[in-house]
Amino acid sequence: MQGFNKYYPPDFDPEKHRSLNSYRGKHALGDRARKLDQGILITRFELPFNIWCGTCNNHIGMGVRYNAEKKRIGNYYSTPIYSFRCKCHLCDGWFEIQTDPKNTRYVVVSGARQKDEEWDPEENGGFAVHETDPNKGPVDPLAALEKSTDAQNHLNNVQIPRIEALQNLSDHYSSDPYAHSQRVRKRFREQKKADKARADADERIKSSYGLPETLALTAEDEELKSMAKEEWAQARRALEEREGAKRRKIGAEVAVVPRPGSSRPSSRSAPATASGSGGDPVSALRAKILGNTARHGGSLGGLGRTKPPDTKASRAGLVKRI
After folding, report:
1. pTM score over 0.85
2. Residues 6+ apart with CB under 8 A from 250
3. Where does residue 51 rank: exposed (0-12), middle (13-18), buried (19+ CB within 10 A)?
4. How far apart, in whole angstroms, are the C-alpha atoms of residue 18 and residue 317?
5. Are 64 and 46 in contact (CB under 8 A)?
6. Which pLDDT score is estimated for 10?
7. How far is CA 303 from CA 137, 268, 296, in A?
């Protein structure tokens, strides 16, 4: 790694020498500033186009670099004009090239000539990029006025409102950053509280009805509530219709008739049959239930009326016999 420390000799005085370059009597640019007292700075210059050397008449291609003497020779308004004096690498001749700020190009001044490579688009089937016809008549003032009027209308109707909108937007976002940040953070806090309350309500509903944790519940609103009420009413009506049809079917099918194999009909079945013949579905169903209960009771009645053997008497008889 290159070291950046510098050696300061014992007799170095910062107030007197200011820097090590002045202490050693050297310039910061080194050998490039050897002609700086003449206003010349040695710089690296690259040819902007092809040239022919005026001394040896050799061709020098574009892009060849030289250690040129750069010097300021004038101004074009506030833009400086520089000259670059280079020595040909094929001979001992010198050539000079200057900048042309007016035409934004470089110009060969002496010692060489520029290779003519101008290309005319009209000669090659194209269109002229710049109008250079000196014999063309003056511009139509009405056409120029119309063009300027259209430009002014475009400026007033499109560009100025757009710039004003951008300026207002910039003022809106940069007028008071603290107030904007405070308002945004307040809105975020309110939204966070609302989201947390809704999540807690969803968790209570899931735990109450045993719903899975991964089930996403939809947020409530008036439209969803009305739809849910309507669906509940439709389901309720459908349930009532099914229950009514089922009852009517049972009332039509139920007929209290004694079994063929039963020899002793129960005394309770007679009033049930009489009451069931009226045609009321509820009475018929009650008669059927009572008839079934009586039949089951009659089949089990013999077993229920059998008296169990008396163990005490049997034991007493055994004692007397002994």
Report:
1. no
2. 281, 285
3. buried
4. 149
5. yes
6. 80
7. 139, 20, 12
